[in-house]
């Protein structure tokens, strides 16, 4: 009985009704193979991206809670600066995947060339703004006098890296659109290796290198971003690749139709990114006011939770690409099945992560610090974390699928309600009037994740996203 129930669940039967079929439905095994083919590189890539912050926090952890907080306080300001590029890339992936699904390869290359050019300009402007306004931005984020100097140094250096990172992300976004997720994986793997190597040399000073502490971690991250950009740029010069800027006759000149398609998706995604980042910013500001030790504990646990997000984000990338390609090929039924398959893969992964995080929580925390207060409080937070992992991964996959179809206005609304308003409001109420402190902030995180999951699942089941035109 149990075995047959599990088989029925993973077969995805019932996801598409007979009257909704647009053609022959492949066997479940083939659907999972297609998903794995795109998903495993993107999952590995996303986990590697989260590991950059994870490794930075872990390696500066030897310097004490102040260093952890100095690095951690820069996370949301950096992501606010990067929000324009990230939202723009949602449009890039969605449009390129549609062109690929329709076998319009020149259209895909035309989109790539225009978007790389625009991304270069935006990345340069954002990098300069971040360097100039680093101190006031971090003071507003809640950096105290004990960490402001280190946090400003760290932030200004990684803002140089943002220039390289922004362009590389756009190229990788286009590659994901054509299903070439291995390129993104390779670039981020290389960036991680460079980051770890130079962290070792520069944080504490090794061999001929000086001891630069927090600044060393920032330099290592920036060098990793540069290497990732160079590898991404090489990936779009191969003669046999779908995306090829050297051998394609597509113009670099702006095209109204292409840019309109990208920004129709991207502007809604920008609203979503702004809502998310402002919400996360306010949330971090509330937590930072609890003190340096509490914020260091919070930052360590967020880095652990981000591993879970990395898996969900990787499956989201695969789902976004498959949904765009299937809708481009006029196969709404296969688009729905692609999402269902990725959700089921996500369920298995999230179950494994819950077990690891709960049973190994103290071992994981000791990778970052030996402070007994942080380890004790962090252990409680990781129990709370376990209740949100399933919801987090499922909602990330479903939200990404809606974005891949171009339904970014709805996901922006969800982010505004849940992250922009609900999470910081509940966190404040639980932390202060109700006196729950750091635990209260994490209860707010759980409520936010379940709220988003419910809202995006309602939208997904109604199916209107399958009728959008890009």
| Helical segment count | 17
> Helices and strands, in N-to-C order?
HHHHHHHHHHHHHHHHH
Distance between the termini: 45 Å
Cα Rg: 22 Å
Structural class comes to mainly alpha
- Tally of strands: 0
Largest sheet: none
Amount of helix: over 70%
What is the residue-mean pLDDT, rounded to a whole number? 87
- When the domains are counted, the total is 1
Large-scale geometry: globular
Strand content: under 5%
Low-pLDDT residue intervals, each spanning 5 or more residues: none
What does this structure look like?
The protein is mainly alpha-helical. The chain has one domain. The chain has 17 helices and no strands. It has helices at 2-11, 28-60, 65-72, 75-101, 105-132, 134-141, 148-177, 181-203, 214-235, 256-288, 292-328, 332-359, 361-366, 372-386, 389-404, 408-431, 437-462.
Characteristic terms for this protein:
470 residues, mainly alpha, 80% helix, 0% strand, globular
Topology:
Layout: H1 2-11, H2 28-60, H3 65-72, H4 75-101, H5 105-132, H6 134-141, H7 148-177, H8 181-203, H9 214-235, H10 256-288, H11 292-328, H12 332-359, H13 361-366, H14 372-386, H15 389-404, H16 408-431, H17 437-462
Provide a quick synopsis of the model:
The mean pLDDT is 87.
